[in-house]
Design a protein that fits this description.
single chain; 200 residues; mainly alpha; globular; disordered C terminus
């Protein structure tokens, strides 16, 4: 969903609507990034349905894979915090991914009292199949970029990602208006593999 801060034309001029940020350099890029993230999310929704995964399953699996790549232990509590899920909802997601063969529980070698989550080879194979089309299309665009443009993207995209992460923390600090903790809903059961994507 796009921000309600107004829109910008291709020239960079802000359309009527008003925003405290209008006029700042790069304001129009904010909406280009929103459009990119929206399309990436739509793509992920289409392929995860084909693979019988619920929405939160994909995000949880991504968190585990990233932690595994970084050599960091990842536990159920870490998934709950990152995805803003209740303990019961997190357990449901993890059980579903274990049953599907995407995750295994293992004793954390750094603290044998703790159970860490590991992505399986099946999960990595599925991930490659799920995102191969998007990878091909995006890499085709990047092939046309200069080395200098690639360097800028390589340097700036992690910074933008961290900026959104900080914004998420700030947004979450406020909590519900009445101050009552909210229970995150349990993710819906995945649709049958091969089912046609639903339209909004």
């Amino acid at each position: 969903m796009q921000s309600d801060e107004g829109t910008t034309s291709t020239s960079g001029a802000a359309a009527p609507g008003g925003s405290a940020h209008q006029g700042r350099r790069g304001f129009d890029v904010l909406f280009l990034l929103q459009q990119f993230s929206t399309e990436a999310e739509r793509y992920a929704d289409q392929v995860r349905r084909r693979f019988g995964l619920a929405h939160k399953d994909v995000h949880a699996l991504n968190e585990v894979m990233q932690a595994n790549r970084d050599g960091r232990p990842v536990r159920a509590g870490d998934i709950a915090r990152r995805l803003v899920l209740s303990g019961s909802a997190t357990t449901t997601v993890i059980k579903r991914l274990v049953a599907a063969g995407h995750l295994v529980r293992a004793v954390d070698p750094r603290d044998r009292r703790e159970i860490s989550l590991q992505a399986t080879e099946h999960a990595y194979r599925s991930g490659r199949r799920m995102f191969s089309a998007m990878g091909e299309e995006v890499l085709a665009v990047l092939d046309d970029c200069t080395d200098e443009e690639i360097d800028v993207l390589r340097r700036r995209l992690p910074q933008l990602t961290e900026a959104v992460r900080r914004a998420g923390y700030r947004a979450g600090e406020g909590g519900p208006e009445d101050g009552t903790p909210q229970e995150a809903p349990v993710p819906p059961a995945p649709e049958e593999p091969g089912a046609s994507p639903r339209t909004a």
